[in-house]
């Protein structure tokens, strides 16, 4: 918002051009004289205004306060030149928008002096009683969240003087009437900076997020009661267009994560030798895990990660998910550097979390209630190449929904597990499975992991295809649920998921490879083959607790459905269940678009009946269908 350029004065012709462009484009961004700036949506009947408290200065000095409004879909920063022109602009915008929506709201945000100890709302208490009540309640909620600051309750001041002390009003009372506009002033206590004027950046981020939420709730109350706008929720009041710096950070985070394949680098390259030696030694000798060389320099990646200026992101939702993602990538890079050490295991616990008590209990109950079934000989055994052919059939089903869909299947000797990485399927060359397992795993790997990668890739945020923080839990929960919905969730499969939880718990309590193997085989009745598979995965890197995500995610998803949640919104990309409200907000702001692909099973009658059973509260062990 520099004043280095000479922008045309705000005369009648230039203002008319701004309004015409706003009506044609629906959303505009304009640099204005004296360092001013307008970002406005034609679909929202409000404008949040900030003016430089020192009109004789070229640059805005109160940088923190102006950032309180920069994530708004409609805001105006008044420059230090041609104030009368800005008044004409506000009057014309109000007049045009009130004609469209029956009413229009302007809120001027400014700080009080350093001794100010609470918010003060200045406005027509009789005309906007409900809006002001909501505004006061939401601002008082902020007060209660910062008790140590001893903030006073919010004051509502019924006055026609709604501007900062000593300043001219934005519009006169007569102009407000003529334009069909209502004006509020909001004095903010500058608790986010010291008496010397130094900001507290970490505190400010939290304060700003709380402030924006309170502001949006009050504005939505005005819109709902006083206007004809069709806005459905306060979450829709953020910007629709992603700013350049947002897209740059998103792209860089995605580039960092895709510069390596985390699961590939964590899994041992010599798994077959480890298995053969372990069985030949009567379950005693465990070879050292050998890992693939890192294709990157950890120091360079971390430097790139922390050079990202996330403090400049003013959108609360995006700032939150970017910071989370940076912490997750930092942990992943550290883990890859420390493979085979205790540090890997400790970081794994930080990354995937502890085992909740209800999850531990569910795992133990499943292992008690569900006996392991002997592996039967099936007439038709599917091998890797057979699975590859079925995968291509599923890809064709996706192409019928979106002709641009593409993915590949890789059959390799150096892969020990079936997995999807960056939207492509990897199969061990010696893979074998029966018909039931095939149907289940097709929907697990392709109907979930490949599908959400592709849906996420169609969104403007690249991270939705790569994965927001802790996306594994919801992803694996959806994938296992799909196995149940297509009738392929076997008792042995459910036991395996439960076994991974008790194995991870044992590792967290200090158990080594042989102890975990014996626990699974002797105490929980797993076959030697399954005990090895579970143990070898848990012991990757020195202790890899990602495998708790499967049962943890299924349990979370079961509760989500019991609470009336739906599956379809969870297929927008790769994210955690706790991100769902952020995803909904971005959808309501129309930052995100509808899903391109839906899985084959989702709209069948069988699926609807089974989801209804889950909503009624059946246990996890009752999800076994084969």
Strand order of the largest sheet: 1-2-4-3-5-8-6-7
Give the rounded overall mean pLDDT.
90
Low-confidence regions: none
- The N- and C-terminal alpha carbons lie at a distance of 63 Å
Beta content comes to: 5-15%
Write down the oligomeric state.
single chain
Question: Helix coverage percent of residues?
Answer: 40-55%
Give the helix tally: 23
Count of extended strands: 13
**Largest β-sheet summary:** 8 strands, mixed
Radius of gyration: 29 Å
Structural category is alpha/beta
Shape: elongated
Can you put this structure into words, describing what you see?
This protein is of the alpha/beta class and 626 residues long. 49% of the residues lie in helices and 10% in strands. The protein is built from 23 helices and 13 strands. The strands form 3 sheets. The protein has an 8-stranded mixed beta sheet with strand order 1-2-4-3-5-8-6-7, sandwiched between helices. A 3-stranded mixed beta sheet has the order 10-12-11, covered by helices on one side. Strands 9-13 form a two-stranded antiparallel sheet. Helix 4 packs antiparallel against helix 6 (201-226) and helix 19 (513-523) packs antiparallel against helix 20 (528-538). The longest helix is centred in the middle third of the chain and has 26 residues, at 201-226. It is elongated, with a radius of gyration of 29 Å.
